[in-house]
Specification:
alpha/beta; Transferase, Pyrimidine Nucleoside Phosphorylase, Chain A, domain 3; Pyrimidine Nucleoside Phosphorylase, Chain A, domain 2; Aldehyde Oxidoreductase, domain 3; 4-stranded mixed beta sheet; 13 strands; binds uracil; EC 2.4.2.4; PYNP-like_C_sf
Length: 433
């Protein structure tokens, strides 16, 4: 077999066999097939897609590129949540301790910033000392003690996703239904989850721009998840505007703490609670989503999830006391405000434009080897529906470099749309699949 033939077959729209997929992905992980050939293949998949059979084979090959974590000996249920990627989406940081407070174990294996979207691992690592490269032993121990642990793909666990994820990030091959499906589900199966809530995002800041595409992705995830023996609930949620009021690594940790204290922004609280309610259902803690929502609201009000979050910060190498001291003042020194260009209502803040600008600020990467900046990002003082007067400060911006600030400011200003009348409310949760 030759990688170049596999690339040309995919380019011609042919269905690849499991053996061909295994040859390519296995060779990549072993260092025998170079990045440039895998990039070309990923681009061919991006344009030609994959059949359900190919997607399932890719997921399985990626899963078996490393070890599967054995959680036996720890009492379940093991339920996780994963998002298909968004801007300002920090719900994972709230959901893991919230589920743990209900007696659900969450073995959370996440990713880094991808394209214009943020990554849970980069956010967590903004907490000084926080380690996301846990060994399997540490992962197991922390799940047993805290009810959840948050880690990343390693050279032993789904190494194929670790490599492909980083490659897709910088080669324009992220927005592909089969590649997203295999990336998410290989991680979720490898981490030991039994059930999964999927937050499938659609809108400008998501990888799927239209609801219909989002629905196709949700269906691909649900079908492939079922084939792997996972119980899956998918919610199709809006990602046209950034979620919550902060975008940035440490900024989003802070906003997660607000959420754990019950005072997160309305849109963020709503999406978080609806996802949490489904985790409660899949974990057997609630009879339906309505019941689950009430149980989750009560748990949040008890303060237990916040306590568990801080306990986990300590377990994973951070210092909870230092985290609370940094809250509100751990920021890049290069900063400015963006003012409203007009008086009236903000009718939209385009999540895609904000995501792209954030990468330039230092929140994400332009090249695989780039380091993200923990203290860069954007805070919104007004969002869709806010009434503003020209000259009001609508965003505060922090950048890693002067150059990054210069490039991103016009993009951020351009992300804001104005209207003479209040915009209609958008539905945050479109449907359950
Ligand atoms: N999240 C993932 O883990 N992988 C993707 O490809 C997209 C979002």
């Amino acid at each position: 077999m030759r990688a170049v033939d596999i690339i040309m077959d995919k380019r011609a729209g042919k269905e690849l066999s499991r053996d061909e997929i295994k040859f390519l992905i296995g060779g990549y992980v072993a260092g025998e097939i170079p990045d440039y050939q895998v990039s070309a293949w990923a681009m061919a998949v991006f344009f030609k897609g994959m059949s359900a059979r190919e997607t399932a084979a890719l997921t399985e090959v990626m899963l078996n590129s490393g070890k599967v974590i054995d959680l036996s000996g720890i009492a379940g249920p093991f339920v996780d949540k994963h998002s298909t990627g968004g801007v300002g989406d920090k719900t994972s940081l709230v959901l893991a301790p919230l589920a743990a407070a209900l007696g659900i174990k969450d073995p959370m294996m996440s990713g880094r910033a991808l394209g214009h979207t943020g990554g849970t691992l980069d956010k967590l690592e903004a907490i000084p000392g926080f380690r996301t490269g846990l060994s399997v032993d540490e992962f197991r121990k922390i799940i047993a003690s805290d009810g959840f642990a948050m880690t990343g793909q390693t050279k032993d666990i789904v190494p194929a996703d670790r490599l492909l994820y980083a490659l897709r990030d910088v080669t324009g091959t992220v927005e592909s239904i089969p590649l997203i499906t295999a990336s998410i589900l290989s991680k979720k199966k490898a981490e030991g989850a039994e059930a999964l809530v999927l937050d499938v995002k659609y809108g400008s800041g998501a990888f799927m721009k239209e609801a219909a595409e989002g629905e196709k992705l949700a269906q691909s995830l649900a079908d492939t998840g079922a084939a792997l023996g996972l119980k899956v609930i998918a919610l199709l949620t809006d990602m046209d505007e950034p979620l919550g009021n902060k975008v940035g690594n440490f900024l989003e940790v802070e906003e997660s703490l607000d959420c754990l204290e019950g005072k997160g922004a309305d849109d963020l609280m709503e999406v978080t609670l609806e996802l949490a309610a489904r985790m409660a259902v899949l974990g057997g803690k609630a009879k339906d989503a309505k019941d689950g929502r009430q149980i989750c609201e009560k748990a949040l009000a008890s303060g237990k999830p916040r306590e568990l979050f801080l306990q986990n910060v300590k377990s994973q190498g951070g210092d909870p006391k230092q985290l609370l001291e940094l809250r509100g003042n751990y920021r890049s020194e290069i900063t400015t405000e963006i003012k409203a260009a007009k008086s009236g209502f903000i009718s939209r803040i385009d999540a895609w434009k904000v995501g792209h600008a954030s990468v330039q600020l230092g929140v994400g990467r332009n090249r695989t080897e780039d380091k993200v900046c923990p203290t860069a990002g954007v805070q919104f003082h007004a969002k869709r529906g806010s009434s503003v007067t020209a000259g009001d400060a609508i965003m505060t911006v922090w950048a890693a470099t002067e150059e990054g600030l210069k490039v991103s400011l016009p993009q951020l200003a351009d992300a804001v749309e104005y209207s003479g009348k209040a915009p209609e409310k958008r539905k945050l949760i479109l449907k359950e699949i």
